[in-house]
Amino acid sequence: MADKPTIVLVHGFWGGAAHWAKVIVELHRRGYDALRAVENPLTSLADDAERTRRMVRQVSGPVLLVGHSYGGAVLTEAGDLPNVTGLVYIAAFAPDAGESPGQITQELPPAAIANVGPPDSDGYLWIRQDMFHESFCQDLPADEALVMAVTQKAPLASTFGDAITAPAWRAKPTWYQVSTQDRMINPDNQRRMAARMSPRRTVELDTGHASLASLPGPVTDLIVEAAQAG
């Protein structure tokens, strides 16, 4: 492919742009130098989608949007910009119009749902630090999980209820990675969301929610496939 797209990475709840660290290194090693990672405020879907749109608008050429976890909802809402050539979902929410991440979660609750919340006095929702490793990233080393737990970026609890308006996956090519041992988004929910998008490829990885950190190689394989398809 002569013109590689700029790859814009969108993080999810309980993490920031640095959750993409291993994928960034792997993409760079494979010759993808035009890389950006959004740092979303996690204050509302509207705020996060607008932050992502602003970054995409700074790119003059084609953009491939990649979202992990709640980041999938963000790119679903923000991915309709004309220079977005595709959407890659990494163990991510892909709501339809009128759906929210919270609604999808309640339909098929994940294994670790009891380890989240309740909201603190300011309305932010945290994963219990002592349960973070087994809930979010059970197949990472304990030291990596500890850093993720302590540096987790909590969303406003109300963000879970924010619904999609016009899902970009209905108009853009998609790719989806299912984490079969995910304890934060039920794997069957992931399969259901992927199936209704009719993605160009669905990949199942035997890993937990933080597949972008536990299996960066296979995750990067899927991103590169999407980048080359554009």
Q: Any overview of this molecule?
A:
InterPro entries: AB_hydrolase_1 (IPR000073), AB_hydrolase_fold (IPR029058), Sec-Metab_Biosynth_Hydrolase (IPR052897). This is AB hydrolase-1 domain-containing protein. The chain is built from nine helices and six strands; from the N terminus they run βαβαβαβαααβαβαα. It has about 230 residues and is of the alpha/beta class. The chain has a single domain, classed as Rossmann fold (3-Layer(aba) Sandwich), CATH 3.40.50.1820. The chain has a six-stranded parallel beta sheet with strand order 2-1-3-4-5-6, with helices on both faces. The longest helix has 14 residues, at about 215-230. The N and C termini lie close together (about 10 Å).
